[in-house]
Amino acid sequence: MKAMILAAGFGTRLLPFTENLPKSLFSVAGRPLLDMMICRLQDAGCEAVIINTHHLHEKVEAFIAGQNYPIPVHTRYEPVILGTGGAVKNVADFWDDRPFMVVNSDIVTDIDFREVYDFHLNHHYPVTLVLHDDATFNKVSADKNNFIINFSDQELEEPSHLPPDKKLAFTGIQVIDPEIPAFISEGIYSSSIDAYKKLISEGKKIKAFISKQCHWKDMGTPERYREAVIEDMAPRAFRIKAEHTGLVSSLCFPSSDLEITHTRLKGDGSDRKWYRLTTRYQSLVMVDHGIREGESVSEADAFVNIGRHLYDKGIPVPKIYLYDTFSGLVFLEDLGDVSLQMLVQDAENLEEVTSYYKSVIDFMIKLSVSGAGEFDLSWTYQTAYYDRELILEKECRYFVDAFLRGYLGTDLCWEDFRNEFVCLADKALECSVNGFMHRDMQSRNIMVPRRDFRTGSREREISQACDASPDREKEEFCFIDFQGGRIGPIQYDLASLLTDPYVNLPFSLQDQLAEYCIKRLSSFIQTDPDRFRTCYKYCSIARNLQMLGAFGYLSRVKGKTYFETYIPVALRTLKYNLSKSDESDFPVLKKTSENISR
């Protein structure tokens, strides 16, 4: 048999995501839909495939040219889009005297194409349409003998449950006899459904192949695309995890009859969405970065590439099991819910807190030194380095625009601080000890991996085995939210850790832990303590400005008003760090911080 894949559509319902990529090249687990469809047709015994193209046709053509399929795969460009019927007519020279298959490019399904084709060969009707019960698209009527009797433009609100004259969804999969193109006008826009309506009106019959136990998902909208990717990838992610932990028992990964539940987790200041996926014995975390809109490096790209790099370096970060950076979905190790912030809040004394932070600093030094090895700058999102421009724009200007003007409503402007901010940026970089920089090293981004599900005896035994990562140590801390990583000073990460308003460490302890970091770092690389302290002092100010800008923006613009709780602590810390700078430094910024703290 031969087959045609319909891939010329504009993908209007998927805008703006189809502005740069045709929907046939949207991916599932990193694999384009078009590639999945070609391989499924090939596996079904297809001898050759032709793909019609129009919108962003050059990208489809380039993709096909870069593959090496064992069967011929052709493209046919339509300068003016011809519709489903016109597309079939436009490739009349491709067909032979056998029935051929036509499939939509924007579906994900496990329907057996060979079974469908053989079904068609075993009856004498000119067309077979594959139907499936899907409430959103049920608008094709079939009689009790499974012949198509009507095509409706109205969608049903409820599933039909297959009554005698049932309405079902057309899956976009069909087998057509070679005489059917004669019913289609040449060179003009034409729908294959219109041709089938004409056939029915002339007394000819169209057979329905009703697929009852199948997986099928149309990807015509962002929501349905996301659902399809999750339905496909989540079970695979659980299987990969089970293999990684050495437990491949069916108890430890989902099968078709093992339900996966989704629980929304409390997010952070970003727009990403976090979920915990659970089966009876396992759990994973899924992070949704959103569908890619442009062609540049995305936040999801950085999250995956940096996360895998750090994990391979032996740095404590969650293992990434499966991902698709176009859809923005990443499935990773579930570290539980216990963060450094929670440990500090529950600590019985300052000695316990100090012990936690010394352990984190040890891991942070490993992150900086080892993480910089073989680090590819092309992985980074936004900028590759923590540099002067970043400090001025993403920290200093952010403070003025989002906090002073946006949140407090003052009339202060960038020009009022320009000279001081330039001085701050230069001094923050002058004595930096560069390595891999996390950029958001605060207590909520430092987790203590979970070790107990608190379940019953047998289930507890299995769940502990399934969830235990073989390289997790008992009291290990793990870093998350590393997608903003780049090359920069370890002093900035140290400042983020110690000046963190979520825990509000005493200033004396901050100073003590900074000295501990200098001592520990000196055992790895040569470190000048005075120069280290100078850079740390100015990085602390820069970080304080960034935090206040973020709290102002998140509270006022994003409506996350719980961040307002931490503004007074952040202001006190800013005043303290400014007081440690030289007397002549930052007079306008010092005066401003005094005024807004009253």
Summed up, what is this model?
With 598 residues, the protein is α+β, with helices and mostly antiparallel strands.
What would your notes on this structure say?
The protein is of the alpha+beta class. The protein folds into three domains: 2-216, Spore Coat Polysaccharide Biosynthesis Protein SpsA, Chain A, CATH 3.90.550; 221-371 and 442-480, no CATH class; 380-440 and 486-597, Aminoglycoside phosphotransferase (APH), C-terminal lobe (Aminoglycoside 3'-phosphotransferase, Chain: A, domain 2, Alpha-Beta Complex). Helix content is 39%, strand content 16%. It has 17 helices and 22 strands. It has helices spanning 33-43, 57-65, 83-90, 113-121, 192-201, 222-244, 299-312, 340-346, 350-371, 388-407, 418-430, 457-467, 490-498, 507-522, 529-556, 567-579, 587-597; strands spanning 2-6, 27-28, 31-32, 48-53, 73-77, 100-104, 107-109, 127-132, 140-142, 148-151, 166-176, 207-210, 216-218, 261-265, 273-278, 283-288, 320-324, 329-332, 434-437, 446-447, 478-479, 486-489. Strands 1, 4, 5, 6, 8, 9, 10, 11 and 12 form a nine-stranded mixed β-sheet that branches. Strand 2 (27-28) and strand 3 form a beta hairpin. Helix 9 (350-371) packs across helix 14. It is elongated. The chain starts with a strand and ends with a helix. The relative contact order is 0.08. Residues 154-162 and 451-475 have low confidence and may be disordered.
